[in-house]
Amino acid sequence: MEMAYVPLRHASLLVATICIPVITAVESSDAPNLAALKSMAMTSRPSFVYRNLLLVLLAAAAPFAASAAGMPEYSLTIQNRRFEPATLMVPANTKFKVLVTNKDSTPSEFESNEFNREKIVPPNSTVTVFIGPLDKGQYKFFDDFHLDTAQGVLIVE
Predict the structure, then answer these.
(1) Do the Cβ atoms of 117 and 142 come closer than 8 Å?
(2) pLDDT, tens digit, for every residue of 53-101?
(3) pTM of the model
(4) Is the dihedral of CA 76, 155, 110, 108 positive or negative?
(5) What are the residue ranges of CATH 2.60.40.420 in the chain?
(6) How far apart are CA 110 and CA 39, in angstroms?
């Protein structure tokens, strides 16, 4: 098997963009492609590749960051094995997030079969749950670890 030289200064990106195609070409004995890939490996500029990759990733992530930043946010607290408030009013046909804070010393869970969410909330911590868009109506949620006390409802208007 012929070995191709690939600079590993920026190993994670180079493995994905250069090393794997070079190794594949070497193993398949595809000589014309091997020469081109060797040339690419020897002359590539990792800083240029990283800069362009970063720009592409930032451009792709921008709509998601902007939509999450403007997303309505609601708070829900689990205390004494109960949700406070037990009823949340939220808008219909809108994505929103609920910050669920567990003030108890034991784990809890924010769960709903009706809007298909399940998230464990460790003791003395806060988790973010993204929900929606939902149609108008009432949607029950509960703490699966404390079914006898922790029940709530989303009222979607």
Answers:
(1) no
(2) 545 555 555 555 545 568 999 999 999 999 999 999 999 999 999 999 9
(3) 0.58
(4) positive
(5) 73-156
(6) 54
DSSP 8-state assignment for residue 4: -
- Tokens in use for 113? 């079969």
The full 3-state SS of 40-70, as one line of letters, equals HHHHCCHHHHHHHHHHHHHHHHHHHHHHHHC
- 137-142/151-156 β-pairing: antiparallel
DSSP per-residue string spanning 84-144: ESSEEEE-TT--EEEEEEE-SSS-EEEEETTTTEEEEE-TTEEEEEEE----SEEEEEE-T
Q: Which amino acid is at 52?
A: N
Give the model confidence (pLDDT) of 92-140 as tens digits.
999 999 999 999 999 999 999 999 999 999 999 999 999 999 999 999 9
Decide yes or no: CATH 2.60.40.420 for domain 73-156: yes
